[in-house]
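[agent] plan:
  1. take the single chain provided in the ticket
  2. run structure prediction with default settings
  3. attach structure tokens to the ticket
  4. add a short note for the reviewer (M.T.)
[agent] executing step 1
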Amino acid sequence: MPAGRSQKLAKQAASIAVKTAALKSVAAITAALTISATATNFAGAANAASGNEPKQAAGTHLVSFAPSNTELLYAVGAGDKLFGVCSYCDYPDAVKKKTVVGNFIAANLERLATVKPDKIVCVSGQEALAGQLSHNGYKVLVLKNDHLSDISKNLKDLAALSNSTARGDQAAAKFNTCITELKEITSKASVKPAVFYCVWPQPLLTLGKASYLTEVITVCGGDSISKNLESGYPHFSMEKLVLANPDVIVMPYECKDHSFLEKHPWSSLKAVKNKRVYFLPDPPHDGLARPTLRLTTGLYWLAKKVHPELSTQLDSWSARTQSTLAPFMPPAN
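[agent] step 2 finished; step 3 output follows
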């Protein structure tokens, strides 16, 4: 395979891993799934190097290879201890001044050597990268981001790592309170609509147990038709989709201008007939794309789609939530 083609596929695969809700091409999907399937080969080495234990000596020179970790580090007030990021880290605006030491799946070892990190943080799905980094002598911490509860846990772990425990505990507690309040609102709904979250239409991919987005649907008062599937982003047959006939369908932004919904069997689905197919916002405004505090904006968006009858209560919740979390969410610009 020509080098240019190989680099292009790697970049596409990394984009998928960063934005799990917005897959862009079949080639990218294949590459991302291959990375996921082989990553566990390196997990043992990565965990051995890091001990997977955040309560070690606080880091003063940190590097983040995941946008979600970068956002959470800023949320706990550790932006000044972050000296290197990956090319997909774009929030908050201050991150643009940091040294880019690689992308989501590969490190630039020369640049990394100039940063001299005492700890590198990765996320689940980056075990292969973590293994390679630990092999090169770096201490690596791999954080999970498979469940909604991982957000508050990661806030605390990153705060402990950067010697900002009190702020991390406070941010985690406030986030958990916001989620509890949303659950209380949506639990009052008289129905729980069946929801199909389409990660990508061809091949048809959706959400499973190992995706935090499955729990997001539940919190928003919906019932994911794929919630019992084991993997995070499994294949789903069109036959099963027709049989389930969901009330609500969430589609990737990239498919907004496609016409496949007008064709059979998509056109036969209840959600399509009732005009309850919703396309995710464009990537910069997609609040569901990353498991960070900004996920609350995505929760608000989705909850209003699933339960429009609760709009008044959800509007009030969103206003309270944004005010509550504002001290931990620096502006993008």
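[agent] step 4 note for reviewer: The domain at 3-170 is CATH 3.40.50.1980 (Rossmann fold).
[agent] ticket updated
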